[in-house]
Amino acid sequence: MALDPGENRAGATPISGEAACELRTARLVRAGILFIVGAGFLFTILDAGNKFLTETYAIVQVVWARYAFQWIVVPAIIGRVSLASAIRTRNLPLQILRSLLLLLASASFVTAIHFVPLADASAVGKVGPLMLTALSIPFLGEHVGARRWAAVAVGFIGALIIIRPGFGTAHWALFMPLLTAFFFALYSIITRLLSRVDPPATTFLYTGVVGTLVATAAVPFFWRTPDLVGWLLMIGTGTFAGLGHLSLIQAYKRAPASVLAPFGYVQLIWATLVGFAVFGDFPDTPTILGALIIMASGIYVIYREGRAKRRRRN
């Protein structure tokens, strides 16, 4: 028998309405954390599938598969919103630009993981929140204090430790996740702007439509007919991409972004484990050190932004 929110498990001592509300909130937050950690795992499986596919197929074809087969999951993401309603937007140019930025971010990251280990590319790519902080000044007019600027600078030092430019060991592809982070930061800024005029279903739908159309126009020039394993992997990457976005949506429905953001760095653990299990790659000491610096800087920036928002509300 289900318990009433105002009754404890023993049914003896009633719980106040405020306590019951706090209990429900805590449960939702825990669920949100599980969803975002799960999303990180799904995206890591997507990345591993992409890395495996790029050994046989062109990067353009791999990116195309990620968009084309994501449509398997789209109905679950947009829910009961009708297609006619979801397609209406108040800012079509911004929707197209946002979608193209995500496509460029995807292509940059797939290029990176074709050449370098998953964990290395993922660690460098995690400077995205730091880039977002820096770009929020010119694009969103936000104020960033000296402490956050210092954290951004330290985070980029962490990225340089991983890339090691000028030491003869850096692979050029390690700079591609920096491009990914840059494109994704711009994408995130435009997402914030669009959230003021369009519902999430509309924004998500345009992301899929534009990405699929552009990739489909380009893929004939690089096409190689997949075998059965190739088709299954391509379908799998698109499905995991869609499920990852669905998990993110479910996470942010349940918990505040400021609570969830630090758990996004768990994806670095998934990338290390999956990269080692599937490809036999394990990050070296400088990569681990750089990743820890990026994580610490990112979490500090998130903490400072949360404090700044609370001060503005009060």
**Measured distance between first and last alpha carbons:** 42 Å
Low-confidence parts: 1-9
The helix fraction, in percent, is over 70%
Instruction: Note the run of SSEs as H and E.
Output: HHHHHHHHHHHHHH
- The assembly state of the depicted protein chains is single chain
What general outline do the C-alpha atoms trace? globular
Structural class: mainly alpha
| Biggest beta sheet attributes | none
Mean pLDDT, to the nearest integer, reads 85
| Rg from alpha-carbon coordinates | 21 Å
Taken as a percent bin, the fraction of beta residues is under 5%
Query: Can you count the beta strands?
Result: 0
Figure out the total of helices: 14
Describe the protein.
The protein is mainly α and 314 residues long. It has helices at residues 17-53, 59-68, 74-78, 83-86, 92-115, 118-125, 128-140, 146-163, 176-194, 200-218, 228-254, 257-260, 266-279, 285-313. Helix 5 packs antiparallel against helix 9 and helix 5 crosses helix 10 (200-218).
Short synopsis of the structure:
With 314 residues, this protein is an all-alpha fold.
List keywords for this structure.
314 residues; single chain; 14 helices; disordered N terminus; globular; 74% helix
Write the layout of secondary structure elements.
Elements lengths: L16 H37 L5 H10 L5 H5 L4 H4 L5 H24 L2 H8 L2 H13 L5 H18 L12 H19 L5 H19 L9 H27 L2 H4 L5 H14 L5 H29 L1
Helix pairs in contact: 1-11, 1-13, 2-5, 2-10, 2-11, 5-9, 5-10, 6-9, 6-13, 6-14, 7-8, 7-9, 8-14
